[in-house]
Amino acid sequence: MKTPNRTTAEAGHINHPHTQRAFGKVKKFVAAYGALSVAVLIVVVILSVTGREVTSFMWGRTGGMFASAVVTYWLTVLASRGARWAYVRVRIISVIVPIAIIAIDGIPGALPPWFVAMQIAGALTLVPAAFIVNRSELRAAFPKAR
Are 14 and 141 in contact (CB under 8 A)? Predict the structure, then answer.
């Protein structure tokens, strides 16, 4: 008898149409997060090129948001293929990142209002993804190793 791979979800659950539809939705929300991060990056680049003030804090926040979007999408793809370790990380990122973005952007006067609004809009696109990946049906596709 073959020993199950502890890093991969059981094939019967991960390939279930409901599971794959759920991951399809998560990918769309993460892609929207990525699109908004690119939009913020483009605005920051334009402002910088035209001589407007762009702080290193803004560059860091913009780069961090873009990098987290790329990594989260990659992890979501791996999770949709059955990688439990990637699924666990998507669950964590989809909950923590929106909270962190909103908390940091809430520092009074640290960032311009338009920047805060765009970053929060991006963060809010991950909230539905967090609800989807944390539902019991999707968690059942990734049983804990024994």
Answer: yes
